[in-house]
Amino acid sequence: MTIDYGSIVWKQYGAAIDMLEDAIRLCPDHLWRAALWKDSDDARFGELWFVAYHTLFWSDLYLTGRSEGFSPPPPFVRGRLPDQSYSKDQILSYLSECRKKCQATLEGLTEERAQQKCVFEWMEPSFLELQIYAMRHVQVHAGQLSLLLGQHDVTGFDWVASARESS
Q: pLDDT digits over 128-138, tens only?
């Protein structure tokens, strides 16, 4: 029996991305800059828009498999806060690109790539383990966004059991 680990991980990683997308889409404009937590370095790091961006940035980077040479697509910046918050449309566009990259990467996963070591300053997982790690990262932030929105009486959330066919 052959097990297609890439497709299995995609279905769950894609579901996490879909839940993040739901939270972003359901966010009313007046909560786009709401604080999920107080950040001592800069309050913007705790704002909903930034948490959404942060989640996508790290997903994109981890799908690349290495930090060296990685840059997010314009208008996004690495290593600093932007001059102004990103819009919901910008974040949703980045989410769409990350979702496509995730699906293509995982559905095309070879055994060799799955086992390839990914070296970061804080960990050295295999590429497959890195994707599971990243999936957990997406899900925790999707949950945080959903919680904040729920506390402000935003409804419409539902559990996504497996990646949607199209987003």
A: 999 999 999 99
